[in-house]
Design brief:
heterodimer, A: alpha/beta, Rossmann fold, five-stranded mixed sheet, two-stranded parallel ribbon, 35% helix, 14% strand, globular, B: alpha+beta, Immunoglobulin-like, 5 domains, ten-stranded mixed sheet, eight-stranded antiparallel sheet, 31% strand, elongated
């Protein structure tokens, strides 16, 4: 399985290396239409109003979109039996009733995350009912904003740091070490989580990639900018998160 | 025409004409015929010759009348005679069987008990019927209820028998009468047979010996004023914490429209009540009640309706039923072809249920499986079970979106045997690779499922767009435990109306004959309906189809409140039902109905090995524990007629619940034990249920043996009918018919009519 993943990531990288380099600093369009629910796994990215608004068209929540999810779902499809949508994904707000049809969601740049009251209630309900949130792409004191927003959605929730013994790191790939570096800032990644009823024996509702940015690895895995071995680890984390979120 | 009018006109009763053979007894038959023919010829010639002044029409009428008169005279002159076989006086025995059961105490014979008829007819040797029978036969009187014994007369009867076993009584009487010539058997009863024995076998034996049975039915065929709890339908066993759904059938006569209160008691504590409006006379009113099985062990539930004013029988307002509440962890294997939210939410729904263990076996990649909630590292480590022993450890199997080609043919066969032979529950969920889309049509599992599957399906159907279905329960679902998602029946019905729609990608065909649909789904307001949830028995087990791919919407949908428990309730009920009544390799039951103290309990065990193959000739013992704790070991013997079937019996002397476990000895030290069965032993009230006189049964007994059915008011004809019995020592009797009043009356009428016609036509 490991060899297959390496090969796929390598092929992806060499095939589109040149074209991708030109797109490195382009901001993708974010007005693509959502696809309707059909029972298949659909990657869902959470949209929010960023702190201090849009700067130079950068709305934060769209980082790595759409190449991050396109590359990731392709890997997800290739390594396992899951048949996700490969050419489309959805962007939803936390107060959108449609979100409840997709029990796994991805949220990036929570350092700039804002929540309306309705969105906070929506996220709380989503997680309590069984939804699973992947939080990614933030470092340093961005934690403060993230923790404050989570507290608005789940006032009683406690963020707990995870180690590699947790089942999420063994749901598909067996990830022995959590020794990851942030792709841009070189800080050591930390993995945090929120458990149902704050009980570590129960379901993990939120997985938090602090000081990390697996979406970035996914986006640039086919460009050659990032070593394949590191991209692989980011894919492995993503695959494990999805398999965990679909089965626990 | 009534029988008495017939007898007045034709001198004898219809029964004699039916049994007799017509002949003519005149000594000079040719001479009489010759003379009569001559007279008729002369008469015809006289009426037909010319020269008469009368019209042809008048001559024809008068001629015809004269000919009929002559014919009747000729018939009388020929001395018509019936040859009838009749019993030789005092050479034959008659067995009189009198019902000695408690139902004979019911006072519905002009306000007197049914037993009064027996006392009046056979109370002493000089009683009306006894004396008449004794003139011609040797009369042997027997009392019977569960068994039969000889008595001198009905005065010795106490009418205290707890059962009525007609077949046993007839067999006993025939044996007791021995080889002596028997003219017939008289059976005086209300026909309230409540035995498990088949009466057909006894009737065949009587027919073979040509012994007619003359039945006398006592009591009313329909009680005037009575309410009865005629049946209680409930599962034999449930898991602790399950909802127990009772379907109580109430029948009544004389109280239509009245409201009564039906109470359910568990150990003297009222656990449910329901106001019931009684239906039409003779109609059955179904009442559904629900209680929670909150205490483990054998639970004896009592269903009661308070006696109503002027009710004829009050004992049948009360009925008891036993349910075993099992506090065990039932293991269910959930096989899923790909990670799906369905397994996540299903597992979460039952996670807090200590009586259910759902073992997940999810194919996450080719030859890579995620195992969840396994007992140890070995479980399912080698993939899907390849042996019956390994698969049959589970009591239920859920098949998700896993294509049939994943399994070998042997594994598919094994899955079918899991249901058919092991008696497990199989649930197939909807999905891109389930049902016909998964290629199950034409496989052994296709036979097991309750819905028809096309053998082949379009290549792209697995990727077909899903169809949204609004789910509604069927009528059958109203009384089914799996579909009760509210605290009451009304709440449940209301909740179904508000649940969000689900989706399916499966094309489901018609229900199979014998299958039951519990949920259906419709597409849009005018959309066609398709089966969503259906089930059927298959062999010893059950197969269930739930053809939707996202029941998790009932948990996750935006319209569902966070604390709503519908999804949890649905799946807990569903999985508890899936594994209900799943048998162990060794199982044991008590045959027959209720057992009273002092009666024999007949045990029937089915013995299989760990692969659920039947074991013959094994060493099997029933470990019985009496209510007082006294152990009794009952050896069970292989019946030979059926593989793996063992029988034995013991005498239940104590009142209370006997516990029974069958034990199969394996090798020198090993044993296989059955689940514990409980046999309630209590004073039986069976005699008071369905207690109206059962005329159809008694008519059938009489018809099939060549006898006759009587009611008390026409039983006076019994001695004469018995005397015409063709059974026993008989002699032929001649019964003259020439002097039948009918012939005289007809002759008179014809002569009178001829004379009147002549006067009317002025011919005389």
């Amino acid at each position: 399985m490991m060899r297959k993943l390496t090969f796929l990531a390598f092929a992806l990288a060499t095939a589109v290396n040149h074209a991708s380099a030109q797109r490195r600093f382009e901001r993708p369009p974010v007005d693509a239409e959502n696809i309707p629910y059909d029972g298949r796994f659909t990657f869902v990215r959470i949209k929010f109003t960023p702190l201090s608004g849009s700067q130079w068209g950068d709305v934060k929540w769209n980082h790595d979109y759409p190449r991050g999810e396109r590359n990731f779902t392709r890997i997800l499809s290739e390594v396992g039996t899951l048949k996700p949508h490969l050419t489309a994904s959805n962007i939803l707000t936390l107060d959108d009733p449609e979100l409840f049809k997709y029990p796994i969601a991805y949220l990036c740049e929570p350092g700039f995350w804002t929540l309306t009251e309705k969105e906070a209630r929506g996220l709380g309900d989503y997680l309590k009912k069984g939804g699973f949130l992947i939080v990614d792409d933030f470092v340093g004191n961005h934690w403060m904003n993230f923790a404050a927003r989570m507290n608005e959605a789940l006032p009683d929730a406690r963020l707990v740091q995870l180690d590699s013994s947790h089942a999420i790191f063994d749901s598909f790939f067996h990830i022995e070490s959590l020794d990851f570096d942030h792709p841009n800032f070189g800080v050591k990644a930390e993995f945090w989580g929120i458990f149902e009823d704050n009980d570590p024996k129960k379901r993990l509702m939120v997985i938090v990639n602090y000081n990390n940015d697996i979406g970035d690895y996914w986006e640039w895995s086919d460009t050659g900018f990032i070593p394949i071995q590191i991209s692989n680890e980011a894919y492995k984390l993503g695959v494990n998160y999805v398999i965990y979120g679909m089965t626990r | 025409m009534s029988e008495s009018v017939f007898e007045f006109l034709f001198k004898y009763r219809p029964a004699i004409f039916q049994r007799g053979e017509l002949t003519f007894a005149t000594p000079n038959l040719p001479t009489v015929i010759l003379c009569a023919t001559a007279v008729i010829v002369i008469a015809v010639l006289t009426y037909s010759r010319g020269g008469w002044k009368t019209r042809l029409g008048d001559r024809l009428v008068l001629g015809a009348a004269r000919l009929v008169i002559l014919g009747l005279v000729l018939f009388a002159l020929l001395r018509p005679t019936l040859i009838v076989s009749a019993s030789v006086p005092q050479r034959n025995l008659v067995g009189v069987l009198i019902d000695d059961s408690r139902s004979m105490r019911i006072a519905d014979v002009d306000g007197k008990p049914r037993s009064s008829v027996a006392t009046r007819l056979f109370g002493a040797q000089d009683s009306a019927l006894f004396a008449k029978l004794s003139e011609r036969f040797g009369v042997r009187v027997f009392r019977f209820s569960r068994d039969a014994e000889r008595v001198a007369s009905a005065s010795e009867l106490t009418f205290a028998g707890r059962r009525t076993e007609i077949a046993t009584a007839l067999e006993h009487a025939v044996q007791a009468l021995g080889d002596a010539p028997v003219a017939g058997i008289v059976l005086l009863t209300d026909g309230g047979d409540n035995s498990a024995a088949r009466i057909t076998d006894s009737l065949l034996a009587l027919k073979a010996r040509r012994i007619p049975v003359f039945t006398v039915g006592v009591g009313e065929e329909h009680l005037n004023r009575d309410v009865e709890i005629s049946r209680v339908e409930l599962p034999r066993s449930v898991l602790l914490g399950s909802s127990l759904l009772f379907n109580v059938l109430v029948t009544q006569r004389g109280f239509s429209g009245d409201r009564v209160k039906l109470q359910v008691e568990d150990g003297g504590r009222i656990v449910a009540t329901e106001d019931v409006t009684l239906g039409e006379d003779g109609a059955t009113t179904p009442v559904r009640l629900r209680v929670s099985a909150s205490e483990p062990g054998p639970r004896r539930f009592r269903f009661r309706i308070a006696p109503l004013k002027s009710e004829q029988i009050t004992q049948n307002n009360d009925r008891e039923a036993l349910v075993v509440v099992r506090d065990e962890r039932e293991k269910i294997l959930y096989v899923e072809g790909e990670p799906r939210f369905e397994i996540k939410y299903l597992r979460r729904a039952v996670a807090g249920d200590s009586n259910l263990q759902v073992v997940g076996f999810i194919r996450t990649a080719k030859d890579k499986f995620l195992r969840l909630d396994v007992d140890d590292a070995e479980e399912l480590a080698a993939g899907f079970p390849k042996t019956r022993e390994e698969l049959f450890k589970y009591r239920g199997i859920i098949l998700g979106s896993m294509e049939a080609s994943f399994f070998t043919h042997d594994q598919l066969r094994m899955l079918a045997d899991f249901v058919g032979e092991r008696g497990g529950g199989l649930l197939m969920l909807g999905g891109a690779h389930a049902f016909a889309e998964g290629g199950y049509g034409g496989t052994p599992l296709g036979n097991v499922l309750p819905v028809m599957l096309p053998v082949s399906t379009d290549s792209d159907s697995a990727d077909a767009a899903p169809v949204e279905l609004s789910v509604t329960p069927t009528d059958a679902a109203r009384s089914h435990a799996a579909t009760q998602i509210g605290a009451t029946e009304r709440e449940s019905a209301d909740r179904w109306k508000t649940l969000p729609p689900l989706s399916t990608v499966n094309r489901i065909g018609r229900l199979k004959p014998g299958a039951t649909s519990l949920l259906t789904g419709s597409t849009g307001s005018a959309g066609s309906r398709q089966v969503v949830l259906a089930h059927q028995r298959y062999g010893r087990g059950k197969a269930i189809a739930l053809a939707v791919q996202d029941s998790w919407f009932w948990q996750m949908h935006a319209d569902i409140p966070v604390d709503d428990m519908t999804h949890e309730t649905f799946w807990r009920q569903m999985l508890r039902w899936l594994v209900s009544d799943v048998s162990e390799p060794v199982s044991i039951v008590a045959e027959g109905g209720e057992v009273a103290p002092g009666e024999t309990v007949h045990l029937l065990a089915e013995v299989r090995d760990s692969a659920y193959l039947r074991v013959n000739g094994g060493e099997v013992v029933a470990r019985v524990t009496a209510p007082s704790g006294t152990p009794i070991d009952v050896p069970l013997r292989w019946t030979v007629e059926r593989d793996g079937e063992y029988r034995g019996s013991f005498l239940a002397e104590e009142e209370g619940a006997y516990s029974v476990r069958a034990e199969l000895k394996i090798g020198d030290t090993g044993t296989a034990l059955s689940d514990t069965a409980f046999v309630p032993v209590a004073e039986s009230q069976a005699e008071f249920f369905d207690a109206a006189m059962r005329a159809p049964l008694l008519q059938r007994i009489a018809r099939e043996t060549g006898g006759r059915f009587y009611r008390p008011d026409d039983v006076g004809r019994l001695p004469e009918d018995l005397s015409l019995s063709q059974s026993g020592a008989t002699v032929l009797e001649q019964k003259e018919l020439w002097d039948m009043p009918a012939i005289f009356l007809l002759l008179s009428a014809l002569v009178g009519a001829e004379w009147g016609y002549r006067r009317y036509r002025r011919l005389a």
